[in-house]
Specification:
about 475 residues; 14 helices; 18 strands; single chain; 6-stranded mixed sheet; binds adenosine-5'-diphosphate; about 20% strand; Nucleotidyltransferase, domain 5; alpha/beta
């Protein structure tokens, strides 16, 4: 006999991955699928196909026990859809997380948002929406989403005279509803519940759209824009139950009819959630190609100069920053195999004092904001093990400086650091870092985004059960 199970689905940059966990958080099954060659020609079709293939590759008995599902997607990946049929009514190719929009659009975003707002970055979801908004059918380079919208009977609001009228007002009257902007994770969830309404998103995905998770609303500067009717109307906490899977999807997939689809999050936050930290002062350092730090804090910090911003998770803030240093520098000098061979010769108890600041190229963002900062990785000692130790010490210095900077800015004091990414496997580096950081450092047991999404699904199911129990208690009390 198995208890309820929870399915987390991660749609990353190169493929999708699913984890099913039980009530205790044990992984019951883990499956993955690449998007395949040619996916780039039709991302939407690939995601759609891979979603049902992934669910289909979960053991049927396990599938039948899934009480809740949640998704994570790449941050700022956006779609424009017909809200009445989001599966087939995608109006234009998806705009991917890393697609920078043009200067005029970024300038228009800057003109409407507060200075240095994260939604003003050229890759932000807001800029993607503005690009769509300003596309007109007379522009031959445009994707003609307005024509698709008109064919489907959707209203086609927005500037309809000139492509240069960035941010201008005006709308074309029409009978149908307006098109709807969804994030990748919102859209995938909608494929399962098929109950879109005017759209549901989550605090994390909606941050780069301009949503304010502090007041839990779109700020005035955004809500008064003429394109505001395209925004998802409901933006909820990650893990909030949204709707049950549709009857058609339950029949097609073998998921139970009462399986809940819960609000999701972004891929990097899902990876953080996977580590299982819950208290202010707990942090996760990701030692992948770059060095990223994320700290749970009771206070919210935002500082564009350092590229620091805060996501909301429950009642705490997830403050994040990223250095340009990290594993990519190590890879310039050593293969992963060489790293493994040299590591036993490292002597954390005997610091090299080489004073390196390892960077793959000049320029740093955090903890030092200096676009001209030069890498310091010389002199190179004859012994590779000493050189490697110097590099690892240098990166550990940067990590420690990053957490000190967050504390100086008012974040909750650091209590514990969990480690994710390729560098987490290096025990000597962990020792070096522990000396620098002055708090316990250990590897995160789970670092996969799909596991974090599964934890959100579990949280949503628990929330729904608690609400049901409260409702039946109220009935009894009456
Ligand atoms: P990403 O997903 O960001 O590319 P990963 O989390 O896969 O990165 O981590 C890869 C990085 O980990 C590489 O840049 C590599 O230099 C580093 N790495 C791999 N093995 C070790 C090791 N034993 N010690 C330190 N760093 C390592």
């Amino acid at each position: 006999a198995q208890g309820p199970l929870y399915l987390g689905l991660d749609f990353g940059t190169s493929g999708a991955r699913a984890a099913v966990i039980d009530e205790e958080g044990r992984v019951v099954q883990d499956v993955k699928k690449g998007y395949g060659e040619g996916a780039a020609a039709d991302w939407i079709g690939s995601w759609h196909r891979v979603l049902f293939e992934l669910i289909g590759s979960v053991d049927p008995q396990i599938r039948a026990g899934v009480a809740a599902v949640a998704f994570d997607g790449t941050s700022a990946t956006a779609l424009l859809v017909d809200p009445r049929d989001p599966a087939h009514g995608v109006l234009a190719p998806a705009k991917l997380y890393n697609e920078a929009q043009n200067k005029e659009v970024a300038a228009a975003a800057k003109a409407m948002a507060p200075p240095a707002h994260t939604a003003t970055a050229p890759t932000s979801t807001l800029c993607k929406l503005l690009t769509w908004w300003n596309e007109v059918d007379t522009d031959p380079a445009a994707t003609h989403w307005r024509r698709h919208a008109a064919e489907r009977g959707l209203s086609s609001p927005g500037p309809s005279t000139s492509a240069s009228s960035v941010g201008s007002r005006g709308s074309t009257p029409s009978s149908g509803p307006a098109p709807l902007l969804l994030h990748q994770a919102d859209w995938l969830a909608a494929l399962l519940h098929e109950d879109v309404g005017r759209g549901t998103s989550d605090w994390n995905n909606a941050l780069k759209l301009g949503f304010d998770p502090g007041s839990e609303a779109y700020p005035d500067w955004l809500a008064r824009q003429p394109f505001a009717e395209l925004l998802p109307a409901r933006v909820v906490a990650p893990g909030t139950p949204v709707a049950r899977v549709s009857a058609a999807v339950a029949a097609r997939t073998g998921l139970p009819g009462d399986c809940l689809v819960c609000a999701g999050t972004t891929d990097s936050i899902a990876a953080f959630v996977a580590a299982g930290v819950t208290e202010a002062g707990q942090a996760v350092t990701s030692l992948g190609s770059t060095l990223a730090v994320k700290l749970l804090s009771t206070t919210r910090l935002d500082d564009a100069a350092y590229g620091i911003y805060s996501h909301r998770l429950g009642d705490v803030w997830l403050v994040g920053g990223a250095s340009n240093s990290g594993g990519a520098v190590l890879r310039r000098f050593f293969s992963d195999e060489q790293l493994k061979q040299l590591t036993p010769r490292l002597r954390p108890e005997a610091p090299t004092r080489l004073g390196y600041y390892p960077l793959p190229a000049p320029g740093e963002r955090f903890p030092v904001a200096d676009p001209e900062l030069q890498p310091r990785m010389e002199p190179r000692p004859a012994d590779d093990a000493v050189f490697l130790q110097g590099l690892l010490e240098g990166i550990a210095d940067i990590e420690a400086a990053a957490y000190r900077r967050l504390a100086d800015m008012g974040a909750s004091p650091l209590k514990e650091v969990l480690t994710a990414g390729g560098g987490a496997a290096n025990p000597k580096w962990t020792e070096i870092r522990q000396q620098q950081l002055g708090v316990p450092v250990r590897a995160a047991e789970q670092g996969e985004a799909c596991y974090g999404a599964a934890l959100l699904a579990r949280q949503g199911a628990r929330q729904a059960r608690a609400a049901k129990a409260a409702a039946s208690t109220a009935v009894v009390a009456n």
